[in-house]
Amino acid sequence: MQSILDQALQNAKKVTINCDSKLIFFSDLHRGDNSYADDFVRNMQIYADALQHYYAAGFTYFELGDGVELWENDSFETIYNAHQESFELLRKFHLEQRAYMIWGNHDMVFRDPKVVEKMVQQYIRTPDELQEKQKLFNLHYYESILLEIENTEKTILLIHGHQADWFNYKFWKVSRFFVRYLWMPLQKWFNVKDPTSPAKNYKNLIRVERNIQDWMLSNSNQMVIAGHTHRPRFPEPGDLPYFNDGSCVHPKSIIGIEIKDLEISLVKWHNGLDEKKQNKIIKTVLEGPKSLDLYL
């Protein structure tokens, strides 16, 4: 696992941030085809309200992998048709160069730029002018992103997290085969959980987290924000700076991480009561905000 994570750090896309930057991190949406197996369906409106808020507030959107469920589904078209509003919201961020995408194990096919281009052509409308077309067709998926804080040597590594999950990284096609043709039918008929998924297998979850933390220790406590396990993590200052943004398929809620004013927070979007005691989709701050200086 060390070499895979080393490579992710070495080849990471570099993005500079400063005190004016406003960032939102979500992962593990697992957008599906609106069937019984589509875990994202129940949180579609919560996610839409959250993204509309972040777009209006000038945030940059980071999707840390498994945004699209391409293990259970072999067609992107059906996923797009089921979640067109979600993709149109992403399009708005993308057109203003405020969207960064990372591939995870469930959408690992996006490592291939040709696959991404075909996807983009499906959910981003093609303008008539070639110049505009080229502007639109530059959506790129990265394995990793390195946030560099302006005028410092401090960095934050963004990954999906399956780099610390050897089988789901090296043999993801095998895992995909079993999920698509074995575990999904068993889940449907007998509620059998997928043992390859760290989100559904506690021992696997702990092993993945330990692998990431061991790598961080051997790399000068490199701060990491990841997804993959679906388990939110927000360490105390002084602890190893491993953060996890949870997922967007929690029961009736989505969880993410915000960075604003160089402060980091763990946030939850869910149905609740506003100031007037009326039902509304609201944001609750679970942890933070805390200065990034406490972790870097």
Describe the protein in words:
The chain is built from nine helices and twelve strands. It is of the alpha/beta class and 296 residues long. The chain has one domain (2-174, 201-294): Purple Acid Phosphatase, chain A, domain 2 (4-Layer Sandwich). Helix 2 packs parallel to helix 4.
Would you spell out the secondary-structure blueprint of this structure?
Blueprint: H1 2-10, E1 13-17, E2 22-26, H2 44-56, E3 60-64, H3 76-82, H4 84-95, E4 99-102, H5 113-123, H6 130-136, E5 141-142, E6 144-149, E7 155-159, H7 166-170, H8 172-190, H9 202-217, E8 223-226, E9 242-244, E10 253-260, E11 263-273, E12 279-291
Parallel strand pairs: 1-6, 2-3, 3-4, 4-5, 7-8, 8-9
Antiparallel strand pairs: 2-10, 6-7, 10-11, 11-12
Descriptive key words:
9 helices; globular; 33% helix; 296 residues; single chain; alpha/beta; seven-stranded mixed β-sheet; 12 strands; Purple Acid Phosphatase, chain A, domain 2
By secondary-structure content and strand pairing, the structural class works out as alpha/beta
- State the total count of DSSP E strands: 12
CATH names the topology as Purple Acid Phosphatase, chain A, domain 2
Strand percent estimate: 15-25%
Order of helices and strands: HEEHEHHEHHEEEHHHEEEEE
Low-confidence stretches: none
Helix content: 25-40%
Q: What is the tally of helical segments?
A: 9
